[in-house]
Design a protein that fits this description.
This protein has a single domain (8-288, 301-367), classed as 4-Layer Sandwich (L-amino peptidase D-ALA esterase/amidase). Helices cover 25% and strands 25% of the residues. The protein has helices at 79-85, 100-113, 145-153, 216-220, 248-265, 307-327, 344-353, 359-367, and strands at residues 32-40, 44-52, 61-72, 87-88, 92-96, 126-130, 172-173, 176-177, 181-189, 193-204, 234-242, 273-281, 286-287, 331-332, 338-339. The strands form four sheets. Strands 3, 4, 9, 10, 11, 12 and 13 form a seven-stranded mixed sheet that branches. Strand 5 (92-96), helix 2 and strand 6 (126-130) form a beta-alpha-beta unit. Helix 2 packs across helix 3 (145-153) and helix 5 (248-265) crosses helix 6 (307-327). The two termini are 22 Å apart.
């Protein structure tokens, strides 16, 4: 198997803020990620990715959350309730367009099966999607409920698998193979307060690729794929986690800024692209029920302190997209179609020519 490296390992440092230890969404304590990957026969290229905000019962101990939409040509299940009450109560699931219903049913079954949820009669499953039908036999509806439950059960902290895994198995961006990508940033407020912000991105969109300002798409040209209007559509799902005590209102503002990170990669959000961002905080929980005291007033950050988080989300989103491209490998799929991987050596050459590489990092890595 081809040995791919993440963008930062190759000297592509995005922005100025420091990353977490893993440079992943799982740098936010308690967050777990799991995948189920379908690579079968010559035409099944799809999967499921699950993101869990904490180890407990999400239905009973919800987390504050918000969703922002840049272009609504998509199917993001659960949006209206999240927008209304500002919480999520199930794992966040990512899959392909036609398997959203399957993922919702699996999320409902998972939630009903948890101890303490025996009286649950309304569950707001949160599911985002991309259309992977260029490489994948999407009409075959190959993902079943058990596959979604497997992704949830396999979710774990630590290093996150990137590239052609989970919901990113059949994804592509800029006509190159993409997939799952992740990144994180440390945000310091004053001398003592430090917070973590992490992003998991699933880019599947058109555009002209820029990396750190270097015009990769213009310099290298884009792969000359067979003309297919549907291929020029796509979507992007951005999942954002932070341990900062942000309100649902400020989480929505944070999610909205993530689209600036997409723009920096060269995305222009085509007519048929569904571009969504969901953000949640692990800093406090909102109980489903109350006994005697119905008033819960968590200590949330004042809005005036959120600006550094806006910088962090732009940087982390941009880098997560690059990681999805750098870690993905060439993929063959339905009808003999192929999406090539980004050529690393040519890309690095262009980045060097435009002086956007951290050469000291590359030399250090080489010596090791």
């Amino acid at each position: 198997m081809e040995n791919r490296k993440r963008a930062r390992e190759l000297g592509i440092d995005v922005g100025v803020l420091p990353t977490g230890l893993l440079n992943a969404i799982t740098d936010v304590a308690g967050v777990k990620v799991g995948h189920t990957t379908f690579f079968r026969k010559d035409n099944i290229r799809t999967g499921v990715t699950a993101i869990l905000p904490h180890d407990g019962n999400l239905f009973q101990q919800k987390v504050p959350a918000a969703i922002s939409i840049a272009n609504g040509f998509g199917k993001f299940a659960g949006y209206t309730q999240v927008d209304e009450v500002g919480t999520i109560e199930t794992p966040i699931l990512l899959t392909n367009t036609l398997n959203v219903g399957t993922a919702m049913t699996a999320a409902v079954r998972y939630t009903m099966a948890q101890p303490g949820n025996e009286d649950a009669v309304s569950i707001n499953a949160v599911v985002g999607e991309i259309n992977d039908g260029y490489l994948n036999d999407i009409r075959g509806l190959h993902i079943k409920e058990k596959d979604v439950l497997t992704a949830i059960a396999s979710a774990k902290p630590g290093k996150v698998k990137e590239g052609c895994v989970g919901a990113g198995t059949g994804a592509s961006a800029f006509r190159y193979k993409s997939g799952i990508g992740t990144s994180s940033r440390i945000v310091k407020l004053g001398r003592r307060r430090t917070y973590m912000l992490g992003v998991l991105a699933l880019p599947n969109y058109a555009g002209l690729l820029d990396i750190n300002g270097a015009p990769i798409g213009r310099e290298l040209g884009q792969p000359d794929l067979p003309r297919d209007d549907k291929k020029e559509a796509g979507s992007c799902i951005i999942v954002i986690a932070t341990d900062a005590p942000l309100s649902a209102m400020d989480l929505k503002r944070l999610a909205r800024r993530s689209f600036h990170g997409l723009a920096r990669t060269g995305s222009f959000m085509t007519h048929g692209s569904g571009d969504y961002a969901i953000a949640f905080s692990t800093a406090y929980r909102i109980p489903r029920k109350f006994s005697k005291n119905p008033v819960a007033v968590p200590a949330t950050m004042v809005s005036a302190a959120t600006t550094p988080f806006f910088q962090a989300i732009i940087e982390a989103t941009e880098e997560a997209v690059y990681n999805s491209l750098f870690m993905a490998t060439t993929m063959f799929g339905k009808n003999g179609r192929v999406i090539p991987a980004l050529n690393i050596s040519d890309t690095i050459e262009v980045c060097a020519r435009y002086n956007v590489l951290n050469l000291s990092r590359r030399l250090t890595r080489h010596k090791r």
